[in-house]
Give the backbone structure.
Amino acid sequence: MNWKTFARWAGLAACCIPAVGSAQGYPIRPVSIVVPFAAGGPTDTMARLLAQQFQGVFKQTVVVENVPGAGGTIGVNRIARATPDGYSVLLMHIGMATAPALYKRLPFDPLKDLEPIGQVADVPMTLLTRGNLPVNGLKDLVPYLKANRDKVTLANAGLGAASHLCGLLFMSTIGIDLATVPYKGTAPAMNDLLSGQIDLLCDQTSNTVGQIKAGKVRAIGVTSPRRLAQIPDVPTLAEQGLSGFELNVWHGLYAPRGTPAAALDRLNGALNATLKDATFNARIAEFGAVAVAPTLATPEGLRSHLAREIALWGPIIAKAGVFAD
């Protein structure tokens, strides 16, 4: 080998060393978890608990960045187009699986433009009414809705949000169409429910248990198959006669496509350490959430689950005829 060839190869090797070193030393600067909804909502709550745990694992600052709008698709697209270096990741719920059916021109492909890190937790939902609505349980609510269908308002956190999906399923199950009011996130929707400006909201327990316990809203029922220990007096919708209506909102952690394997491994390691942490599990249990099994807290586990959910929700949304440009 002549000196020119040697120098060229030496230069290439030198260029590669910092890249490998930076991936292996990840993270060497703050990490951002993007939440595609407004601050104060259920996904935001989950992200902030994750951030606290990840900081302890990484010994680096982990911040939560809220990027709301368009049912979460703006925030998801932010990560799909972000630099794939591991310093910007996404926490998104079941809406990742419903977006392909809801949006005619979705700017990203959930299965192609993102690297799955792992599933995080399942969260049941609760159907709520404003505190002064004259109903007591599902047996009163359904007749009330039939008699006042032109007046009742059903809020959601935006097209494709978990609250939107729950509302669609509820209306489909009881056979009543109601006027829906979309918001940019659950927090503003909850505020209007508390003030009596809207009548109904179906949302994740991470955002509702505190309000239920405080008596500020009226809980009609939970969407889980069993009652929740946190609100044991609230019956399931199933035990009140709404059979087949079970809905848990799952959350997944993602990175931009092309993120280095070393960074993905570190992120997945931090996720699995978090899901084994007693403090984290106790905190999410306060709002009815349950950490997923280890087999789901993996890239392949999340990838497979996402593909199944996309196939499941596509026909349901198509039947409802709800689409966005």
